[in-house]
Amino acid sequence: MQTVTLTLVTIIAEPVLEEMLTRELRHLGARGFTVTESRGEGSRDLRAGSLPGQNVRIELIVSPMVARAMLEHVATHYFAQYAVIVFSQPVEVVRGEKYV
Amino acid sequence: MQLSEVFQSSLLSPIPLAFALGVTAKLVRSEFSLPRDIYAGLSIYLLFALGLKGGVELVHAGLTSIARPAAATLLLGCLTPLTTYLVLRRLGRFSIADSAGMAAHYGSVSAVTYIAAVTFTRSVGADPEGFMPTLLALLESPGIHIALAIGAVKTAAPGRATMHVLHEVLTARTMVLLVGGLLIGAAMGERGWSGIEAFYDPKGAIFKGALTLFIMEMGLVAGSRLGDLARVGPFLLGFGVIMPVLHGALGAWLGHIAGLSVGGATVLGAMAASASYIAAPPAVRVTLPEANPTYYLTSALAITFPFNIVVGIPLYYEFARWLAS
């Protein structure tokens, strides 16, 4: 089977950010994404969890270039004030054209 | 009824007791918690029931009798965020974002405090006007909008999210269910109401039972914030108790001037004294991210809410009675 290497971007953020983030990710070139609710603690302690609702984990597969732009976007606009982490890793996918 | 009796009957009623159980469960680190979907379901039921009954009563009341109380309510909705902001900013020396964030909470209203106030006034035989749910809907959003606008202007950061949040506040669960319920209630009238009254009646056993469970969950949430009381500092501790009393007196007084009964003025006082903790927190988190959530969540939920249901509401009732005499 023919596979292509693309980039999986994962963002874990406080729940109020879901709508804003997914809208912006679309704008940056996401063709689709998956959101799951998640739990945990981080360096900001329970601050993110203090609002009702659970954290959201947003995952999407994009080209390495778009992934880079997304990491930068999240870092510039959200790191200072919100509980959020973002990371990327290479993944093998079939039907590579679906994601770019 | 003596003042002490009033306090006793308020303290030994299901609402504060269920709240106390919730807090205690957290204090002893019980694994008990109310499933999130049940909590959401209960709040949908409570708000929709309030709206429906309020709509039915609204038809009876007519527009003329509600005009002045509605004007008083809107005035409160504009004043309470401003007083909160000024007190915190000038006296408390809080940052602009923190003051505006708190103003959004104290300028808006807590529906549960409202229900507790209605239940209390009925228990002492001072039934409030039937159209009170309409006033509740009116008071919900102006405070949040005004406070967020202050924050946006003063921090000179018209957040990209501001418009989005205005939309979100107006279409939030509380508004849709309350306003939607009011419209349905007004449209269907007594005939439609009689068919569903057994389930939705706010004076009925089902409503009161659901409310008790809801309050227990609030006790759990408040209990989990008790540790934060030490972190918010003495100023906010005092603020969470004194500000409701001032807003409560203002609300009861304005209600009295607008022609509300003792029960109605008490409930309007409790509404003005209360702080929102459902609609306001996410709105503030998105538009004023610099504001510290520990401040607004702890003072609204762990200080002002319990204060109002135990001490505040009977106090506003006594004040309203004194005004009327």
Question: Could you give a short description of this structure?
Answer:
Helix content of chain A is 26%, strand content 33%. With 100 residues, chain A is α+β, with helices and mostly antiparallel strands. Chain A has a 4-stranded antiparallel sheet, with helices on one face.
Describe this structure in words.
The complex is a heterodimer of chains A (100) and B (325). With 100 residues, chain A is α+β, with helices and mostly antiparallel strands. Helices cover 26% and strands 33% of the residues of chain A. Chain A has 2 helices and 4 strands. Chain A has helices at residues 18-28, 64-78, and strands at 4-13, 34-38, 55-62, 84-93. With 325 residues, chain B is an all-alpha fold. In chain B, 82% of the residues lie in helices and 0% in strands. Chain B has 14 helices and no strands. The two termini of chain B are 15 Å apart. The A-B interface holds A 14-17, 19-20, 47, 50-52, 81-82 and B 161, 164, 225, 278, 281-282, 285-286, 289-290, 293-294, 297.
Query: Main β-sheet of chain A: number of strands, strand sense, barrel status?
Result: 4 strands, antiparallel
What is the percent of helical residues of chain B?
over 70%
The count of strands of chain A amounts to: 4
Give the number of helices of chain B: 14
Low-confidence blocks of residues of chain A: none
Major beta sheet, strand line-up of chain A: 2-3-1-4
Following the backbone from N to C, one meets helices and strands of chain A in this order, namely: EHEEHE
Shape of chain A: elongated
Low-pLDDT sequence parts of chain B: none
